[in-house]
Amino acid sequence: MDDRTRLTDALIQAAAFPRKEFRHVIIKIPSAEHADVLPSIATPFSRTPDMELGSLDRLPLELWYETLFYLDMRSLFMFRQTNRRSRQIVDSLKEYQLVISHGLEVLCALLRTELAVHVSLFEFYTSLCTKHCALCGHFAGFIFIPTWTRCCSKCIEIAPETHLQTVASVRRRLNLTPEEIAQLNPFTTLLGVYSLPKPAILRPIMVVSIHQAIMMCNRRPRARPRIQPARSERDRKYSFAGSCVLPYYHKQTGRVEFGVACSGCELARYEDREINADNVFEFSTRGRLFSENGFLQHFIQCKHAQVVWGLSSKTNDEWNLRHVRG
Ligand SMILES: [Zn+2]
Ligand SMILES: [Zn+2]
Question: How far is the CA of 75 from the centre of ligand 2 (A)?
Fold first, then answer.
């Protein structure tokens, strides 16, 4: 570990924390269920395969990998269950092992909502290795599964692209046909608690992306006025019911990041300071998650984080700050 990595780790330990409250209002699969399932979906049988895959076995291994990499997750899952040989081939894919290791909850949610047919192993792996939110560019520790969008918590909460509504209300509001609704990949939410600040149990209900529905309407060939997104208060529980934690996997280092929040910004919030126009920087960063490198950049600018760091250790001084600035 080099000096910069050591210093980054020390800074994060002293002046940052893993913000976890958002994880409790989105899709959660109990870890006990994972523990039981993981060995069966990540490791091949110890016995040598005694069955082959027929004429498919004549394909070169490179072609196998290429095909499986672009297969949707449900088909890949089903193919793996064919026999010991197929299980051995799928398990030998490095990308499969990584998404199973770090995105098991997401895979579970995809299979249970039947959205797995819309996401390939390639897309899953690419999102796992993507650090930034596709909508705002900040660190993304989540995935919005109906449209398979790498997201941060803020965009899940407020961005129009993650706005879900019930199929019944979208059909009524936009006058969509059943065929048009089917093209929008509707899915049934999983039973769970999906709301902030008050917990609310959401029973299974079919929902769809209102953003995609409006785009579809605006592409209709027949002339009609363009539809604008409604200004009414969105029901956030539907967006939460379409979202999962998905950490960032760094290909070069193998480090896995869930994102950290700034303790300094959090403390400033609790000090009940007035947020005014001159304080835009602080306002925009509160509640945000940072990657490890992102937090380092934030720390250089955040006087609150520097105060926390200063309080945490008498030995941290200008020498350390000079090293952070590089
Ligand atoms: Zn975002
Ligand atoms: Zn800060």
Answer: 44
User: Is 275 in the same domain as 222?
Assistant: no
Are 228 and 173 within one domain? Answer: yes
Q: In whole angstroms, give the CA distance from residue 164 to residue 160.
A: 9
My answer on whether 176 and 225 are in the same domain is yes
* 78 within a domain of the structure (yes/no): no
Q: Rounded to whole angstroms, how far apart are CA atoms 323 and 288?
A: 25
Q: How far is the CA of 269 from the centre of ligand 2 (A)?
A: 10
CA of 232 to the centre of ligand 1 (A): 21
Q: How far is CA 174 from the centre of its chain?
A: 29
Domains held by the chain: number: 2
**Consecutive 10-residue runs of the chain (326 residues): their mean pLDDT?**
80 89 86 76 72 76 88 95 87 94 94 96 98 96 97 92 93 89 94 75 90 86 59 73 96 94 86 52 63 92 90 59 55
Residues 290 and 321 in one domain: yes
pLDDT of residue 317: 54
State the Cα–Cα distance between residues 157 and 234, nearest whole angstrom.
9
Is residue 15 situated within a structural domain? no
Q: What separation in Å is there between the alpha carbon of 266 and the centre of ligand 2?
A: 7
State the pLDDT at residue 280.
45
Q: How far separated are the first and last CA of the chain, in Å rounded?
A: 17
Which residues have their alpha-adjacent CB atom under 5 A from ion ligand 1?
133, 135-136, 152, 155
Distance 156 CA to ligand 2 centre (A): 22
Spacing, Cα 280 to ligand 2 middle (Å): 12
Same domain, 173 and 232: yes
**Same domain (yes/no): 207, 167:** yes
Q: Which domain holds residue 218?
A: 160-237
Q: Are residues 297 and 229 part of one domain? A: no
Identify the three-state secondary structure at position 249: strand
